[in-house]
Amino acid sequence: MSDYICALSDAVERVHVRYPNRYGLMIAGDLYTAKTMDRTRQYPALIVGAPYGGVKEQGPCVYANELSQRGFVVLTFDPCYMGESEGEPRHVSSPELFTENFSAGVDYLGLQPFVDRERIAVLGICGSGGFALSAAQVDTRIKAVVTASMYDMSVAARMGQTPEQILETKQKLAAQRWKDAENGYMPEYIPTFPEKPLEKVPPELGEPDAEWFRFYAVKRGHHERARGGFTTTSNLPFLNFDLLSHLDEISPRPILLIVGDRAHSRFFSETVYRKAQDPKELYVVKDAEHIDLYDRTDRIPFGKIEDFLKTSLQ
Question: 219-231 b/e with 16+ CB inside 10 Å = b?
């Protein structure tokens, strides 16, 4: 039985690939192409990053399945330390490494004879939206950026905390480092979601926790390699790293920010829109919460994405 959350179109070919990032870690990816593609020609390409804590078999496969039918070569991937990609210990998160994963995808695509190196874009879902933008700040080979339900994890790490609470958080994480070191550098990892999918979301959960469970913890989006969260001390670098401090340097390459009108995360996209330089666009999807842009093909504006990419990658 397939562990992808959506069925592969009969018109699409999906091939599992592996390639290194700049740190020598092998990244596990899937390459999607239309079966009718003429491999003697060169095509525009797109790299799709999973929600923070997600894997390529979840939201990315939904986007890749659709956009490959619209004329794009699409690469999905598991972040290093996640899914089928290399990296030990497992479930480690890093703003630098997760940003680098997008540039590693550019490396891989640019070596394919049927990909036009001058027409490569990135699309990040949720936390990958922040990493995609971060990569575009420094990697000028990325010609356009699309985000869906974007999260900036460096902002999220401090969000809603007073200076006193931030200090307390740092002290707890520092104490956890001692525990991890004493344990032979096997860092603490506490998964958020169950090993097997639930039939329904526990009624006692409040928002936005219940929303995460509406995707990751039930059959809709559950995956055994995406049980939520990262090693406890993975939060440390996000307290010390501003992912999006150079947004203005993406211009004149275009940015499309897609967000649901009911998304709890809407302010992240609105903040980026205010700070980024033209050309930029904020596209609000009606009647959509944050997770609806992971997999709901009746909400994800594929026509808008196609038009944006084809215009941007001319």
Answer: eebbbebbbbbbb
